[in-house]
Write a structure and sequence with these properties.
The N and C termini lie close together (6 Å). This protein has one domain. By secondary structure, the protein is mainly alpha-helical. It is built from 13 helices and no strands.
């Protein structure tokens, strides 16, 4: 039996959960960003993401679950996470959401390509082909606007690269660090950086009075984001990066599903065709991994 593939299946399920929550969080962030700066949004988001961690610490055995074994690895992953968050929120404010989502899906390509040299994982042409086809399906679904071809687009591409490095580091640390410790370090670093930016008077962290409705929305966004990040860590702790990463494409399916359930938006032929390609890509990867468990 191939232990590699068996252990990847729980990771795939966690990735599906993470993507559903992340789509909700990104949509909420876009809504809030019409009135508040990126830094202010991230401060509230990180605060409530850390509050989300409280029951996880309680369930994980108390403060001992926050013990850090490697400060170097925790600092590196937290840096990657902080850069990812800053670049994504800034991108969402500057670019149309569909463009940002399309560019962020390149995270999967970065993760699969880097999982070999950084994690020693084997990536065959079957999986790489499925990943590329999945990316094509996402582009068909999202139909990025002409605004995609502008310098600001590199913000999202850089975010995708940092996101891939963050997830690869979560995989590297799976045997020494808990999910609780990883999330605590990462969200604390974001909080410190954003608070420093706010007190330094940087435009990215310009502070405005927060209404009751906005506060509740930011709190909700923080809890949703916290859940998404926690599920993401568990995904890469429970599955190989090159296997789990392609299931990020499910975010496109989640987005269409939420659009239909919440707003009655019916998918057009672009979404149907692209979604079919994305689903087929994921099923093929799952089929390959399931077959390997039986060998």
């Amino acid at each position: 039996m191939n232990e590699y593939s068996t252990s990847s299946l729980p990771g795939i399920l966690w990735m599906l959960v993470a993507m559903g929550l992340l789509v909700l969080s990104n949509g909420t962030t876009k809504w809030i960003s019409t009135e508040y700066s990126a830094g202010q949004i991230m401060i509230f988001r990180s605060l409530f993401a850390l509050l989300f961690l409280v029951p996880m610490v309680w369930r994980g055995g108390g403060l001992s679950s926050l013990r850090i074994t490697s400060w170097r690895n925790q600092t590196l992953r937290s840096f990657f996470h902080t850069m990812t968050a800053i670049l994504i929120v800034t991108s969402v404010i500057i670019l149309p959401l569909a463009d940002v989502e399309a560019l962020l899906f390149s995270t999967i390509l970065f993760t699969v390509l880097l999982s070999g040299p950084l994690l020693g994982e084997k990536v065959g042409w079957h999986r790489l082909t499925a990943v590329v086809f999945g990316f094509v399906g996402v582009i068909i679904m999202l139909r990025p606007t002409p605004e995609l071809l502008q310098p600001a687009a590199f913000l999202s591409i850089a975010a995708a690269l940092f996101s891939a490095l963050r997830d690869i580091w979560a995989r590297r640390m799976r045997d020494t660090e808990t999910a609780n410790a990883m999330m605590m370090c990462a969200e604390t670093m974001i909080l410190v950086v954003c608070v420093f930016a706010a007190f330094s008077g940087l435009a990215i962290a310009e502070w405005r009075p927060v209404s009751t409705d906005a506060f509740l929305l930011m709190a909700l966004n923080g809890f949703i984001f916290g859940g998404a990040q926690y599920a993401m860590i568990l995904a890469f702790q429970n599955g190989e990066a090159a296997v789990v990463a392609p299931f990020r494409y499910s975010a496109a399916i989640w987005a269409v599903s939420f659009g239909y359930l919440m707003f009655g938006d019916l998918p057009d032929w672009f979404v149907v065709v692209g979604g079919t390609i994305v689903i087929a890509s994921g099923l093929y990867i799952l089929h390959r991994e399931t077959r390997r468990t039986l060998i």
